[in-house]
Amino acid sequence: MNVHLQRSYEIDRYTPLCANHAKSESLEKQPGGKLQVILLYTEVQIRTMTGNRLSDWTLFGTIAGALLACFFYAIEQGFEINLYTFLVNIDFLPLPDYIIYSYLIQFISHLVITVILIAVIDILSARFNHPIGISVIINTIMSFTFFPLYQIAVTKPFHPPFILPFTLWFIGHLLFAVLIGYFVSILHKKKERY
């Protein structure tokens, strides 16, 4: 079975958009048809994954986000390096003070970002099959948001030099990346069982 027919078969399996192979094959024969089949397959795969995985992303994203927050909170309490305060800081957003300085909203906004992050890593690793590697790359890049976030923060949680805060920030995000990659690999094994 060639790649396009295999994709057509998978489209048939997951969605009524292609009722049979004839539709997919006739679509392939049109100009740009093969690209349309690939795009349709990708869209269906994302829709199927999103529908089935939203609760998993929310669960694992919440656990990972809470553990990262706990790690930074322990550092903040033990060493007075305000990494937790920095992690949940949203004072640069154009929102009323009662929202910006609400501990609950700050924490929830952090968890929402974590859930989105685990969803992106899950979708990418479904295609490239390296959840921990993809997670480490993305989180390494994200850890460097430390510097622009510090610049736009209204309340500065610490002052230069940044060597120790950034090193701890980077280590926390690296551990977080491995944890998310591990959770995504669990999701992939769960998917293979069904």
From TrEMBL:
Segments crossing the lipid bilayer: 57-75, 98-120, 132-150, 162-184
Keywords: Membrane, Transmembrane, Transmembrane helix
Source domain of life: Bacteria
Protein name: DUF1440 domain-containing protein
Species the sequence originates in: Fictibacillus arsenicus
High-level lineage: Bacteria, Bacillati, Bacillota, Bacilli, Bacillales
